[in-house]
Amino acid sequence: MRIALVVSQRGKLLKSLLSVIGDPELEVEVRPDLLSAMAELRRASPALLVLDLATIDARERGLLPSLRAQSPRTALLAVVPAVIPELIREAMRAHVHGVLLDPFDLAETKSVIDRLLEPAHARGGEQESIDQLAVFLKGLAHEILNPLTSISGLLQVLTQEEGDAKERTGRYKTMLQSVERIQKVLRELEYFVRARKPQRRRVDPAKVARGVADRLRQADPPLTVTLDAPESAPPILADPDQLALALRHLAAFAAGRNLDGPVEIRVRPSPSRVEFEISGIVAVPMGDRPEQLLVPYQDVHSSGRSGNLELSAAHGIVRSHKGTLDVSVPAGGGIRFRVSLPLPQAAAGEDEPAPANV
Q: Which of 193, 215, 250 is the last residue of a domain?
């Protein structure tokens, strides 16, 4: 039996209201003041705490901000008359989960209560997503603002100093690199948030791996890449451009922050799957849990890296191909990524059109 605790001088009225529109298994109890309700919170954790703010003493309302910390599993609902904006501000400062301006609007009241009484794990999952989004946005802002600060500072210097073009070459180069860094972040962000559904077709994974290795060797700076793959492998259903992008992201990370470490790419087919293994031997910052690398901009400042947007994008690509991406640390150090993709018979259908009948 779930309990709703109502703090109000008109408790009987609100109790009748909740009993009519609430869950039949919701037991409604009334407390005339906030102090007695807080004593109840110390003994148990009701599912819902209804605060009729207009009937709560002003001195007791000073205790509102501590309610969430005292009972984190309880949903807080404030009933506030719309004509008293001061009480609305107090409800906001208390970080309640919901506000009712007119509890006798039965449809709205039922909607709010049903939302607040959803399973606690659902609310927790929503909060976790919000927290991860906040970390992501903080890291993204950090990554863009850093090069913008460099550009802004150099432009101010260049507009005020005199000298020949040779003296300014280094500054122009720094500005160009900063612009390219911003462009790279924004391109990856666009791909991350607007990734299209992969247009899968049958491709040879060994051929994809060779193309990835060749492109990395020709990059600026070039990567030292060793490829261990058969001449050909059983075909998989994949969008070759997206898959190649994901593998390049993984290989670039494995090469280390300065992109100067050797990288090995292996292709290993099995009866039902094909596995790509991308490994590097240089030390890379990854925190306590390697899997956190797949969360965009996770723990930016302590990791020592600008963020993990590329790895998160690679993870999204692999998942969209019905595959898995695992991260581990080899015994000798460095990092190892394992991408496992199903063969067509295990991939839940093909995207490519069926051949026309002749």
A: 193
